[in-house]
Amino acid sequence: MIACLRLFTALCLAALLAACASSPSSSLGELPRTPDASIEQLLEQAGQAKTPEKAALLRLSAADLAYRQGNAGQSAQILQQVPMEQLKPGQQIFASTLNAELAMTRNQPKAALTALSHPSLQHLSEMPEEQQVRTGTVHARALEADGQTLAAARERVFIAPMLQGEAASKNHEAIWTLIGSLPTDQLQPNSTDDLGGWMGLALAVKSAGTLEQQQAAIDTWRAQNPKHPAAINLPLPLTKLKELASQPLSKIALLLPQDGPLAAVGKALREGFMAAHYQAQQAGQKPPAIEFYDSSKLTSMDEFYRKAQADGVQLVVGPLEKPLVKQLSTRPQLPITTLALNYSEGDQGPAQLFQFGLAAEDEAREVSRRARADGLHRAAIMVPKGEWGDRVLRAFSQDWQANGGSIVATERVDQPVQLAQQIADMFQLRQSEARAKSLQNAAGTNVAAQPSRRQDIEFIFLAATPQQAQQIKPTLNFQYAGDVPVYATSHVYSASGDVNQYNDMNGIRFCETPWLLDTSDPLRQQVVAQWPQASGSLGRLYAMGVDAYRLAPRLGQLKALPDSRIDGESGSLGMTQTQRVVRQLPWAQFVSGQVQRLPDTPR
């Protein structure tokens, strides 16, 4: 009876191993497959296995099954019980791949890349295609999440010929998303392989300006590369570009307030918008007709859209009023594609809604980007008290910390009389003075001691008005912190030409719109000649109006080409996945009462 039971157990074990493993192969070892057994059965058989190798293979199969069933925690726990040294190279590749997949479920791309650096991976090309695809896919995902975009694309190009059906289509689109997101200076199509072809396509598209020029560039590339996968099956975003090019804009509705508290803002936006329109006419282009609507007299957005549709409008630019933008963002869809000139609070809106504005959050992220590029790591923050300051603080902090920076102090500026105390607290000067006094008491005599500030603050992020900044910078100098770099948003710059004011802010670096920094721009000169106020701080709104006009026919372009940008008057413009236009800005510095342009931040 006992002999029969032993025979039965042996047969069961043999059957489970046969279900778990591929056919006997070379020294790379048999690979687990999805078994006809539960996780519990596999683990039970692993405990009864006669050899460590068989036990390890069964546990590896159980760990893989748990992962496929969506139980990453259990999978990781089982995988920890599998000693890598008892596995053959092919099995080590399998285990390393599973380990990487589990790391990605925890959003740990570096851990995934570490798992995929195991020496056994040098044998990957000897493995079955199914395993090569699985390993290559998680490797590409980890590289992308780690910011290694080109390497991720290269990995996906490698596995592409091994894929079929929906998996092949998804990988094809993923390759374009990766390649299309690369900056132009990284697109070097100096090889004739598939990767070089992808880069050549992206460079051709990004080097063209208008939709028509882009379409011509795509057609030329396809004619030159007829056997390339992207020529045979054009990526979906480029197919959409073709559709956009075949549907030129003929009429735009400009929806802005002409009365009420926002009338002056609406006027500056409208004048900037129309200046760009007239410039296009002078250049021999055939710009769309512009229909004006007064948002301050609106009684219903639905009624407005009905009238706009009846008037033949294809695109709405506006509204400016935040409540109206918020209202549009909550709708499931809009009857006409709309470029709102403000931002709603939510992240997502209907597919037909795009949002553009002079968001202070963009500038906070620009400061983070610049300080990071300058090699700085530890920030102190000074923002005004209130909701605006909180938004700017949040935007900077999120971007700064997400990219490895640390925040060592934060002060919210309110009354000027408190500035000296706040800055002293930020730099811990009172503690230094207390130490000097204690030393003096202990010595019983006067001790000459200059307060010393903390040394871990590498720079200050400042969001403040010119009047506040005029007080803050001299106070920093007085409080022994005049050598700490200050990076500010454009709000410190009045564009008034006041030399005394600029002298008070000597050394402060700030981001600003190209419109206010590049006084030689021909369109700016034309606008300022007609509307002198456009040379001052109001010029930012004129710049936004110009850019709203230039964005209008290119919204689909920005959406279809990830990470592509338009060099505008209000900044370098890109688009997020939630269809918000975001800005990157140039930089300047106050030097001896003058504004001195700084080199742009590397992209």
Summarize the structure in words.
This protein has three domains: 146 residues, Tetratricopeptide repeat domain (Serine Threonine Protein Phosphatase 5, Tetratricopeptide repeat, Alpha Horseshoe); 155 residues, Response regulator (Rossmann fold, 3-Layer(aba) Sandwich), CATH 3.40.50.2300; 161 residues, 3-Layer(aba) Sandwich (Rossmann fold). The relative contact order is 0.07. By secondary structure, the protein is of the alpha/beta class.
CA-atom Rg in angstroms: 31 Å
What structural class should be given to the helix and strand makeup? alpha/beta
Total of domains = 3
Helix content: 40-55%
The percent range for strand residues is 5-15%
CATH H-level superfamily of the largest domain: Response regulator
Span between termini:
76 Å
User: CATH fold name of the largest domain, please?
Assistant: Rossmann fold
Q: How many distinct helices?
A: 26
Strand order of the largest sheet: 7-6-8-9-10-14-15
Which sheet architecture does the biggest sheet show? Answer: 7 strands, mixed
- For the record, the CATH architecture of the largest domain stands as 3-Layer(aba) Sandwich
Mean pLDDT: 87
